[in-house]
TrEMBL record:
Membrane topology designation: Multi-pass membrane protein
Record's protein name: Transport permease protein
Superkingdom classification of source: Bacteria
Gene source species: Streptomyces olivaceiscleroticus
Pfam families listed in its UniProt record: ABC2_membrane
Length: 276
């Protein structure tokens, strides 16, 4: 669905975003969310990463690496360890798609149409975040579904189970602002993906997502302790397992999410305004 379906009068050049009220801003966000959702409906292939990535990753790590990490025949124990960690990984991988999507919108001229409309520039980016959160929740549901098929047991309460999903979603949403800023800064979607992978790989594998950190070299183990993905994975693991410390990893994860959002969201919105 094209951006032209958003019914709004043409704005005068230099119209101030600050004049737009909260109700109008929410209405614009809703219209843009609908536009992005209809784009997915008309291009279902864009959901392949969400639908297939959790399945491929969990099968790969459980049956290829699970025996080496947890011991042969102990793959089910590894499922208990892996799935909560992969909840942290899902958010980071889905977040990368936001940056490429924003970059492609600029290259296709979609943002030129938004520039003529009296809408808050931030509403365009927030709508992207909302849709990607929906994609993230779908990926998380598929991941958990595969985990249940492979023997995952939820030992925590329903509230703790929901808390693990919410914590992963909040942190993933914060990461999206980083990739939006990256998408607004570099020239091509390929550059966004290339630079994102340079960040994703060390953070994912230098964490407690896939393996306990006790077997790592001292310098790498020290890095994992400050890696926010390790704290998120540990918090989700303790929430789903119903035991283990919760306050420290949860608070550290929330602090990272708030800090990332506080720094990168204003920078992304400012960069977006300067480009439009």
């Amino acid at each position: 669905m094209s951006a032209a379906t958003i019914t709004a009068p043409v704005a005068k050049p230099g119209a101030a975003e600050g004049r737009i009220g909260l109700r109008a801003n929410l209405r614009h966000i809703g219209a843009l969310v609908r536009r992005n959702a209809l784009q997915i409906k008309h291009d279902p292939e864009s959901m392949f990463d969400v639908l297939l990535m959790p399945i491929i990753f969990i099968l790969l790590f459980v049956y290829v690496f699970g025996g080496a990490i947890a011991g042969k025949g102990n793959q089910q124990d590894y499922v208990q360890y892996l799935v909560p960690g992969m909840m942290a990984m899902m958010g980071m991988n889905i977040a990368m798609a936001v940056g490429t999507g924003v970059n492609e919108d600029f290259r296709k001229g979609v943002m030129d149409r938004f520039r003529t409309m009296p809408i808050a520039r931030s509403s365009v980016l927030i709508a992207k975040i909302v849709v990607e959160i929906g994609r993230m929740l779908v990926a998380t549901a598929i991941l958990l579904g595969m985990g249940f098929l492979l023997g995952l047991e939820i030992k925590g309460s329903v509230l703790e189970f929901v808390g693990a999903i919410v914590l992963s979603t909040v942190f993933g949403a914060a990461l999206m602002w980083i990739f939006i800023l990256l998408g607004l800064t570099v020239k091509t979607p390929q550059a966004v993906q290339g630079m994102a992978m340079l960040v994703l790989m060390p953070l994912q594998f230098g964490s407690s997502i896939f393996a306990p950190t006790s077997s790592m070299p001292g310098w790498l183990e020290g890095f994992t302790k400050v890696n926010p993905l390790s704290n998120l994975a540990d918090a989700a693991r303790n929430l789903l397992g119903g035991h283990g410390p919760l306050a420290h990893p949860t608070l550290i994860t929330l602090a990272w999410a708030i800090g990332i959002t506080a720094v990168t969201m204003p920078l992304a919105v400012r960069k977006f305004r300067s480009k439009t």
